[in-house]
Amino acid sequence: MKGKLMTGLLAVILLILSVWSLFVGVIDINVASLMNGSLEQWEIFLVSRLPRLLAILCTGVGMSVAGLIMQQLCMNKFVSPTTGATISSAQFGILLALLFMPDSTLWGRAIFAFAAAVAGTWLFVWFIQKIQFKDVVMVPLVGIMFGNVIGGITNYLAYRYEMTQALSSWLVGHFSLVLRGRYEIVYLVVPLVILAFVFANHFNIVGMGKDFSKNLGVPYNVVLFMGLTIAAMITASVVVVVGSISYIGLIVPNVVAMFKGDKIRGTLVDTALFGAIFVLVCDMIGRVVIAPYELPIELIVGILGSILFVGLLLYRLKNGRRAVRLPAAGTSGCGSAVSSLDGGEET
To answer: Are 150 and 94 in contact (CB under 8 A)?
Structure first.
């Protein structure tokens, strides 16, 4: 009952904030003008405000669910699209599209971003599987370093071929350029999130280890790479439209897990709702704090996310074991040999 109450409360808060956000911006829109049929007001509403709201909701839901999937599969609460090199890989894919297909459409760039994000995420997971000893914080640090390497290559190629300005739109996340006809790719988040919910129990099983999965008849490698692919494609679809937004996939699942536990099916809806609320609030702050100008949402999320991340880091280190030795080969998830982080027991 308490779980349903929390879900309902989050849904109500999201609905109220969504309606409120439609009327926040440089140009004032009011209900009376819309009801009177003002063409200018309706054009702004349909071309800018409503597409922006839909893009915000898809971004919040998608990035939060992507982080939840990666954390479940990797058995590490600090793994996310940001710390798993997924965002950096998607940006690298967009750069490749700009270099080899300069006249490509948004969908063409999205295909490059999908391929690069999936490949980068798989490579990160393959690499951490080869590490025999892991501290709970070591895995995301490896991911951050790996992402910085990819980011360094991306920046070098951008400078080398004078693509820095063209790439800048995808380096910092913002919704100011979201208009009707330029954001629909982000709708791919919806079927991918539904697919994640369908296979939520499989992700739980795979997160318990390879041997455990085999005993239950679940194809470990298939489910593992399917889950990572879903997370990577969600991230890439957001990066192509909005740009890089950090911390959402890291912070939101951890906050929800503190109240509802780690079972992915039980927390997926709440994670999606809270993620949408978090992104929507950050976007509204960016719109009003220095109005009529607008701050990129990456800046707001980065400030709040950094504070929350440090708090989560201290909380996890206090309540979890510092390091765990890797069990026999093939007995753990993709981040194998990390602590459970909540109970502090060895795995």
So the answer is: no
Contact 88, 154 (CB under 8 A): yes
Bridge partners (DSSP) listed for residue 135: 323
Residue type, 93: G
Could you tell me which residues are beta bridge partners of residue 133? 325
Residue with tokens 């999320």: 301
pLDDT for 61-82, tens place per residue? 999 999 999 988 888 888 888 8
- What are 98-133's pLDDT values in tens digits? 888 888 788 888 899 999 999 999 998 888 877 766
Beta-carbon contacts of residue 13 (< 8 Å; ≥ 6 apart): 277
Which residue type sits at 106? L
The C-alpha torsion from 85 through 88 and 93 to 95, rounded to 10°, is -160
| Dihedral-angle region of residue 57 (phi above 0 means left; psi in -120 to 50 means alpha; beta otherwise) | alpha
> Which helix (H) or strand (E) segment is 228 a member of?
helix 220-241
Per residue in 126-176, pLDDT (tens digit) is 888 777 666 677 788 888 889 899 999 998 998 888 888 778 777 777 787
What domains does the chain contain, in order, with CATH numbers? 2-325 (1.10.3470.10)
Would you call 102 exposed, middle or buried from its count of C-beta atoms within 10 A (0-12, 13-18, 19+)? exposed
210 contacts 220 by C-beta, under 8 angstroms: yes
Residues 6+ apart with CB under 8 A from 127: 142, 146
